Amino acid sequence: MLTVPPVSLPSAMLFVSAAALVDREGRVLVQQRPPGKPMETLWEFPGGKVEPGETPDVALARELAEELGIGVDPSKLVPATFASEALGERHLLLLLYTLREWAGVPEARHASALRWVVPGDLRRLEMPPADLPFIAILEALL
Ligand SMILES: Nc1nc2c([nH]c(=O)n2[C@@H]2O[C@H](COP(=O)(O)OP(=O)(O)OP(=O)(O)O)[C@@H](O)[C@H]2O)c(=O)[nH]1
């Protein structure tokens, strides 16, 4: 008989969308989380929580405007992959998109710093655990 191991259910789901902006040399943009925030100083893809009433791509265009000061057409966001994992009491569903077209020059409005890196070099940066599988996927994709 097939038995299913017991699972502990999360108190809430956290839906987050994030973007790997890709430049003409195939580098991606990462930003450093500022001191005082959870996971401070780790490098992550710009993005944030999907608010009630938003689709993931519309939420991401809003977050990219807030965090980087760039204009993004949600239809230019291309789904790449996702991560699904426990985050404390909650469960994180992190949707990663790639983006090759935007208006303006990204600036660090929320982050401590921005950095353009080729996907292979992401391994040298400290990233949140959910992001680690993204590195090989971006290497293969870009
Ligand atoms: N934007 C972004 N968030 C990520 C990544 N990886 C990852 O685990 N996360 C997690 O997803 C959540 C993102 O939500 P958020 O950016 O709105 O949250 P926050 O804690 O920075 O800010 P806030 O709660 O003040 O709005 C955080 O818990 C963050 O640690 C990533 O690559 N990009």
From TrEMBL:
<keyword id="KW-0234">DNA repair</keyword>
<dbReference type="Pfam" id="PF00293">
    <property type="entry name" value="NUDIX"/>
</dbReference>
<dbReference type="GO" id="GO:0046872">
    <property type="term" value="F:metal ion binding"/>
</dbReference>
<dbReference type="InterPro" id="IPR000086">
    <property type="entry name" value="NUDIX_hydrolase_dom"/>
</dbReference>
<keyword id="KW-0235">DNA replication</keyword>
<protein>
    <recommendedName>
        <fullName>8-oxo-dGTP diphosphatase</fullName>
        <ecNumber>3.6.1.55</ecNumber>
    </recommendedName>
</protein>
<dbReference type="InterPro" id="IPR020476">
    <property type="entry name" value="Nudix_hydrolase"/>
</dbReference>
<dbReference type="InterPro" id="IPR020084">
    <property type="entry name" value="NUDIX_hydrolase_CS"/>
</dbReference>
<keyword id="KW-0378">Hydrolase</keyword>
<keyword id="KW-0515">Mutator protein</keyword>
<dbReference type="GO" id="GO:0006260">
    <property type="term" value="P:DNA replication"/>
</dbReference>
<dbReference type="GO" id="GO:0008413">
    <property type="term" value="F:8-oxo-7,8-dihydroguanosine triphosphate pyrophosphatase activity"/>
</dbReference>
<comment type="similarity">
    <text>Belongs to the Nudix hydrolase family.</text>
</comment>
<dbReference type="InterPro" id="IPR047127">
    <property type="entry name" value="MutT-like"/>
</dbReference>
<dbReference type="GO" id="GO:0044716">
    <property type="term" value="F:8-oxo-GDP phosphatase activity"/>
</dbReference>
<dbReference type="GO" id="GO:0035539">
    <property type="term" value="F:8-oxo-7,8-dihydrodeoxyguanosine triphosphate pyrophosphatase activity"/>
</dbReference>
<dbReference type="GO" id="GO:0044715">
    <property type="term" value="F:8-oxo-dGDP phosphatase activity"/>
</dbReference>
<feature type="domain" description="Nudix hydrolase">
    <location>
        <begin position="13"/>
        <end position="139"/>
    </location>
</feature>
<dbReference type="GO" id="GO:0006281">
    <property type="term" value="P:DNA repair"/>
</dbReference>
<keyword id="KW-0460">Magnesium</keyword>
<dbReference type="InterPro" id="IPR015797">
    <property type="entry name" value="NUDIX_hydrolase-like_dom_sf"/>
</dbReference>
<keyword id="KW-0479">Metal-binding</keyword>
<keyword id="KW-0227">DNA damage</keyword>
